[in-house]
Specification:
Blueprint lengths: L31 H47 L11 H41 L3 H10 L8 H12 L4 H8 L14 H25 L3 H9 L4 H12 L1 H17 L2 H6 L7 H12 L2 H32 L1
Helix pairs in contact: 2-6, 2-9, 2-12, 4-6, 6-9, 7-8, 9-12, 11-12
Length: about 325
């Protein structure tokens, strides 16, 4: 059987049929040109529909990459680079050898501060939600937010003048006859750090927690109250379990803040041990040793990463249980 020419496919030219067009390139499969044109048209339509959104996101992504991601990666890499430019664990070993006590001190201060923040925030938010005295709730709601608008450096100076041996707190106690002047003690140590961090972060966590408590279904609380449950029992057995994730978010964010504040430990503690941020600043300022400072910063990264991992694990487990 002989091969059919392109003009003979289907019918002869003279019987009214339109002959099929011959492909411009012998290597291009039939329909490939149409597929490419349709893909290009689809791409243009997609850009027209979402191009504005992409343009809005690009500045934010660029800012995150330049201001956060790049410094973080550079800090981690520099911690493992030696003086000869090679890979080494010497900087981490030196950080542990010189500042191991400061790392443990920072962990202890952060843990104590978070415990105090959680306790006070639960108490304030619980009273704002379940309090029986309208005027007390109004006064508390109006006053507990004040520290939110005070910078950490001002909080540090206030704590220094209030908690010193000759400060305002001991002066009031001595004038009130509660303690003797010779027994006055300075709280410019780990106790001052815990109190200052808690005083600064309690309003933030309380604001989150009170908002979450206000959004829960009040019928469960009213039902428990009708069955004879007290306010304290309603708080810990009904309200708090429903807002536990919000509390965890506030504590994780407070931990990040505590581990990054420099002004408060430098103003309250003159000796050692102290917070890691002070030692990192000391290492850079007096020695120009960014490698050891970045190695010390690795412990801050690990602490906050573990806290974030624990929060995500608890949250995912609660979501799966539902």
């Amino acid at each position: 059987m002989s091969a059919t020419s392109p003009t003979e496919a289907g019918s002869a030219p003279g019987d009214g049929a339109v002959p099929r067009a011959v492909s411009a390139s012998p290597d291009m499969p039939p329909g490939a040109g149409g597929d490419r044109a349709s893909l290009a048209a689809a791409g243009i339509d997609w850009l027209r529909q979402r191009g504005a959104g992409i343009l809005l996101v690009i500045p934010a992504l660029a800012a995150i990459a330049v201001l956060y991601a790049y410094p973080l990666v550079r800090s981690v890499v520099t911690a493992f680079v030696g003086e000869d430019g090679g890979f080494t664990f010497g900087n981490v070993v030196k950080a542990i050898e010189f500042y191991g006590r400061d790392v443990l001190f920072s962990i202890g201060v952060a843990a104590a501060s978070l415990a105090l923040i959680a306790a006070v925030s639960i108490a304030i938010a619980g009273y704002l939600t379940l309090g029986a005295s309208p005027w007390a709730v109004a006064i508390l709601r109006w006053t507990y937010r004040w520290p939110l608008f005070i910078p950490f450096i001002v909080a540090g100076q206030t704590a220094r003048s209030f908690l010193a041996r000759n400060g305002l707190m001991n002066g009031l106690l001595i004038e009130g006859g509660l303690i003797d002047a010779a027994a006055a003690q300075s709280l410019l140590d780990w106790r001052g750090l815990v109190l200052t961090f808690a005083w600064k972060q309690v309003p933030f966590v309380t604001l989150l927690l009170a908002g979450a408590m206000a959004s829960i279904d009040r019928s469960t609380v009213e039902a428990a109250r009708n069955l004879g449950a007290g306010r304290l029992r309603c708080l810990f057995e009904i309200v708090l379990p429903q807002v536990w994730p919000t509390l965890m978010v506030g504590l994780v964010l407070s931990l990040v803040t505590i581990m990054s504040v420099l002004s408060v430990p430098m103003m309250l503690i003159a000796g050692n041990p102290t917070m890691m941020t002070s030692m990192m600043a000391h290492r850079v300022t007096y020695y120009g040793d960014y490698a050891v400072a970045n190695a010390l910063a690795l412990f801050s990264y690990l602490i906050t990463a573990v806290a974030a991992w624990a929060y995500l694990r608890v949250t995912l487990r609660r979501e799966m249980a539902r």
